[in-house]
Each structure stands twice: as structure tokens, then as C-alpha cells.
């Protein structure tokens, strides 16, 4: 509303300047600006009535929780995402909304035990059919059914996951087997607990000692 008011004030000022302008070049510039402002004002969405805005605000009462936990499965025709939400089957159907595009979907669950829940999946691995996709409400679970455009197996859900797996694989897939082994050991060491780190350190020291003595290094 504030932005619309500013546009209207700008338009009034341009009209006032037009009444005073005598130079053709200046009038042409002002006329162009006038048309631009009128077009922008006409394209502004109408303000919502106060009661509608208040109703929407109250329908999203409480705070919003982003859903990170889910399970997924697939058939020849569908990618199935399972989201656990206690008591979701008690909500009115319109409180559970899923918006699909060819490579994404958004889930919004309103007013479940005083909270709203959202989940967004962008950059799905392969395109889906918007018309063929749907949701199902089960006991304590929302099932999102993404209809595959092509009946083929997906190795993961998103393009980001695929790229991450490929980078990880490339780190170990080298022409030098010992380099691949070192990369693997570094990963295990970085992610391991203290006991794992001690074991790797001990094996490494023993391997270096054998090398120094001219013996064949042990396989780690």
C-alpha cells in the first residue's frame, strides 16, 4: 500500500510538471514517465480487505517449523516422500497444501497443535508431472506423491545430492590407487571418534616404520 501511494504521488507531480512544461523534448520525457507510472499503478495487486488479511494472519497463528526429517521411496511411476506429523489426520484437508512445479514442491501444514510446518524441495533430480502429483493424509503422516515424467529409477531426490555424491566419488576415483586410499583415510579420520583416530595413527606409524626398515608397508 505504501509503495502504491508513492507511485500515485509521483504521477501527480509528473502531471503538474506537464502543465508547466513548454519544451517538446521535456514534454515527451514527462509523457513517457507518465505512461510508465500509470502502467505500474494498474499492475499493482489490489489491497486485501482488512478482514481477509486478518483472517489469513490468524490462520497462520503460532510459529512456523521447517521440516527436515522425512523418508522416501519410489515405484516405477512415483517418488513418495513420507513426512511424520503427529495428529495431522485430524486437520481439515485444506490445512495441508502442496504446491508442485516440474522440478520442485512446497508443503505447508497450518495450525497443527498451534504450529505451522513447511518443507521445500527444489531442484528435484528429474522432472515431475504437476497434474499427476498429489498428497495423501494418513495417520500421523503426510505422503507426497510426485508423478515421474519418465518411468525410470532415481538414485537420489535432488540434483544437489547427485552432485555431492559425484564429488565424493571423484575424490576416491583416481588413477593412483594410493591417492584414493589416502583420501579415504583422511575422510574416515576426519569423521571418526578418538578411538578411530588412534587406530589410524598407530597403523600409519607402524607402516612408516616398516618402510624405513625396507619392509613392505602393511595394508591399512
UniProtKB/TrEMBL annotation:
Q: Which residues form the CS domain?
A: 65-158
A GO BP entry: heart development
Gene Ontology molecular function terms on file: S100 protein binding; tubulin binding; ubiquitin protein ligase binding
Q: Which UniProt keywords apply?
A: Acetylation, Cytoplasm, Nucleus, Phosphoprotein, Ubl conjugation pathway
Q: Which InterPro entries match?
A: CacyBP_N, Calcyclin-binding_UBL-bridge, CS_CacyBP, CS_dom, HSP20-like_chaperone, SGS_dom, Siah-Interact_N
* Protein location: Cytoplasm; Nucleus
CDD domains, alphabetically? p23_CacyBP (cd06468)
Q: Which domain of life is it from?
A: Eukaryota
A family per Pfam: CS
List residues of the SGS domain.
Answer: 143-220
Q: Which GO terms describe its cellular component?
A: cytoplasm; nucleus
Please explain the role this protein plays, according to its UniProt record: May be involved in calcium-dependent ubiquitination and subsequent proteasomal degradation of target proteins. Probably serves as a molecular bridge in ubiquitin E3 complexes. Participates in the ubiquitin-mediated degradation of beta-catenin (CTNNB1).
Query: What is the designated name of this protein?
Result: Calcyclin-binding protein
Amino acid at each position: 500500500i505504501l509503495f502504491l501511494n508513492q507511485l500515485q504521488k509521483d504521477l501527480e507531480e509528473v502531471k503538474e510538471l506537464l502543465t508547466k512544461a513548454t519544451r517538446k523534448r521535456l514534454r515527451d520525457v514527462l509523457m513517457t514517465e507518465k505512461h510508465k507510472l500509470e502502467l505500474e499503478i494498474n499492475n499493482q495487486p489490489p489491497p486485501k480487505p482488512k478482514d481477509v488479511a486478518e483472517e489469513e494472519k490468524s490462520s497462520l497463528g503460532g510459529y512456523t517449523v521447517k521440516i527436515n526429517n522425512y523418508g522416501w521411496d519410489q515405484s516405477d511411476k512415483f517418488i513418495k516422500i513420507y513426512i511424520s506429523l503427529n495428529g495431522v489426520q485430524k486437520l481439515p484437508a485444506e490445512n495441508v497444501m502442496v504446491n508442485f512445479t516440474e522440478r520442485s514442491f512446497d508443503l505447508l501444514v497450518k495450525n497443527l497443535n498451534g504450529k505451522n510446518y513447511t518443507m521445500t524441495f527444489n531442484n528435484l533430480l528429474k522432472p515431475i508431472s504437476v497434474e499427476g502429483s498429489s498428497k495423501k493424509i494418513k495417520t500421523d503422516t503426510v505422503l507426497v506423491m510426485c508423478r515421474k515424467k519418465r518411468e525410470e529409477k532415481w538414485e537420489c531426490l535432488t540434483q544437489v545430492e547427485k552432485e555431492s555424491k559425484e564429488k565424493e566419488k571423484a575424490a576416491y576415483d583416481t588413477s593412483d590407487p594410493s591417492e584414493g586410499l589416502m583420501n579415504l583415510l583422511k575422510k574416515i579420520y576426519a569423521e571418526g571418534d578418538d578411538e578411530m583416530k588412534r587406530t589410524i595413527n598407530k597403523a600409519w606409524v607402524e607402516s612408516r616404520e616398516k618402510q624405513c626398515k625396507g619392509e613392505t608397508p602393511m595394508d591399512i
